[in-house]
Amino acid sequence: MARRPSGRLTATAILIALSMAVSPSAITPPRIAFTDTKLSNGLRLIVAEDHVAPVFSIAVIYNVGSRDERQGRTGFAHLFEHMMFKGSENVGPGEHFYTIFSNGGTMNGTTNKERTLYFETMPSNQLEAGLFLEADRMRSLAIVQDNLDNQRKAVQEERRQGLDNQPYGRTNEAVDQLAFDNPAYKHSVIGSMEDLSAASTQDVASFFQTYYAPNNAIIAVAGDVTTAGVRALARKYFESIPAQPAPPAVDITETPQASERRLSLEDPLARLPRLDVSYRIPSDLSPDGDAVEVLSLVLSSGRSSRFYENIVRQKQLAVNLNAFAPESRGPRLLRIIATPTPGKSLDDLEAAIEAEIGRVQGGPIADWEMDKARNTARRQLVAGLGQSLSRAIQLAQFALVFNDPGRINTAYERLTKVTAADVQRVAKQYLTRENRSVIVTRPAPPAPKGGL
Amino acid sequence: MIRTSPAVAGGLTATLLLAATLLAQDPPSPTQGVVKKGKVPVSREILKVKLPKPVEADLPNGVHLLVLEDHRLPQISFQIFVPGAGGYGDPADQPGLASFVAAMMREGTATRTSEQISQQLEVMAATLNVTAGMASLESTISGSCLSDQFDGLIDITADVLLHPSFPDQEIARYTQRTRAGLSQQRANPGFLAAEMFARGVYGTHPAARLSPTVAALDKTTHDALTAFHRAHYVPDHAGIAIAGDISMAAARKLIETKLAAWNKAGVPPMTVSEPAALGGPKIFFIGRPNSVQTNLIVGTQAITRTNPEYDVLQVMNKVIGGGPTGRLFIHLREEKGYTYGASSSLSAPMYRGDWSAATSVRSEVTEPALRDLLAEVALLRDQPVSDTELADAKRSMIASFALSLESPAQLLNYYVTRWRYGLAADYWDRYPERVSAVTAAQIQAAARTYLAADRMQVVAVGDPARVADTLKKLGAVETYDADGKLVP
After folding, report:
1. What is the structure's pLDDT at A445?
2. Is-above-0.80 flag for pTM?
């Protein structure tokens, strides 16, 4: 409690707080057993068998995302993801999702800068159906102009719904454009309307050939299956899909940032201003990744975080203030998003954020803050083990990023080794003025009438 | 990614819209939504699953306790339901009072400051939230933690439930943050549509309220909050549901110890009134300049949770808009490419709730998309659902039960629903049987009754320059601005 000098707390209150803070959980998170093999065509297969519920999940990750897109085709990796639901040799358009939902399952696909993920959760008697569906589209995607045109429209509506018709949509897209120089990471996953309109069936065919090869994919199956059963079915349906030459490597280098970047935007859909501050941080693969994670927890996790307690609650400079660091194997940002309290100045808010960062860099980090970070990591780990889908996705993702699905069992222990000094060091190293990009978004005039 | 639920809903004058000219005006679909080749090796059997049951007990203070013991993971979650403490009972001139009380309960007690509560919870990595929806009949206190922190979590929970202090300073902070939120939400087209739909369907009923007013916020005092808490946070009709790594014996002992001071108040159960019957079909338009899409909601009043036709309406909803297999998604997205998602939902609480279908489409296809939406509703009335479609919808609903076995908290919610609505003891055991028995004729009859054209409400939110005139082709339109004010 010493970090806040206001003296508002009574001695009794401090004692209660301290006594609570010294009881960290003694629970040891359970470990996930799995096998990790490759089929002869290079398809990586991870199986985590358990029988806690009559359910299994499949996660298929293709090592391709928007960073792999060529110039003039932004948004293509995600548009392609939509095509994966439009049919293959033995599966009609839409039959993939129709089959899964009609048999009690759930499924979806999602694309980010670095990977495309497809997944399904089904009752355990449908394992063969799930693997068949994933294999058929990996082998024989149907590439039909009308279906491409249809999904292009759906994706353009996705862009309008999520970005063009929302307050701060342009801001969200501008962050990476401003902060990064590497073209692979600079553009948004959803892409531009023009580039989406330009995508052709030839693009679909060559992208499929290059990136949707078994040797560029990872499948993880978790839940109520037998490892032998999954392997047999995987061999039956996937092993004859031919491997392809490895896709071209992506240049993920980023030239160091020399000075602060600033941008002002006017947003006709917004009613309140917004401040975005983004610092370049090292990739997930860096040894500093765990310390950066704890840093973002100290700054912004929950109402006891420094940002919330000091800037939102005490100083009342902001009504919302969050920091987070999206995962990335390449260039990466620690992002801060703040909505100023109406009537309070954006400059004061920005200064307060800077001051809190300065206090992490210069001042002590309390033991309770480190306990909180460790317990939060432990809690998140345990919560993430409950669903077979979460287990499957984590295993595949750790295999993709670290070539080590076993991180599912060690990520928490790694985080507990981070010290307060580590957190201060990474804060000093990366959260510097020269290393940040700032966007100020203001409602476009004329100011909306009838404000509250 | 596939998304079926946009953040919106709408209401309408349907008779006018469903003229025979509809089909002629409809551009032809270049693609087929779903083509079934039938080669996927699916098991046609529905996996038989047995739902574990909670242990239940009635405590002397009136609390009904449900515990679903599950030791798969070292974690526990709980919910405390306090009927009467939701926004349903807000005084007419104080909309939002219940949600204000709920939000403030974590902001200080007789012995803990707001900051201490947050810090103690977060060091334990425990969550604790108190929420009271604007139209909800109850307040819900929910939390979760690793199992060895449960005593500590319930200790703080009891303090928050029994001894909130409503400090003036925190009241001022909450008011300021909420005022900003009220302004911000008016930038969201989904909110604007949902707000207008609720007004159209529920009129002056409490369910029409989606957010507090600034006036009500500003006049809320420490005394009003304290009085509401004292009157409504009583155990007489409350329920506590606990799922996870704990036994009934241990849970009961903990609850009875920590909540020993939560005494019966002798208040009668709250009564609930129905919304007034709808006057007729209506079209509402909310002008939101610079919009590039139109958010649409079509819907009407429906049924209570205990209505015998509940299962029929659930299957009907599944067929038309319950996810990507629904007709709306397949037709509006997969065939026409009008939208990223289209879906429908049935809300059936203690009072007569609503059925609604929602989508958001690019401005220029507002008219054909709205006509298609209404045509899908008409189709449910005019033609029986095909055998295959009906069988697929039912199988989807029944087979998906297996998935809930992964989550003790979700399982327990089934039993909470049974308790809350006074459903039969074997309600969930017989669910597959009841769903299987639903017929196409029942669905069509229900659609004719509940989704009749003269009951439909339509809401559209979009750019006035591009959409307002289009809507007028469909009937008389009530137009509002984005602040909810009627535009003459």
Report:
1. 76
2. yes
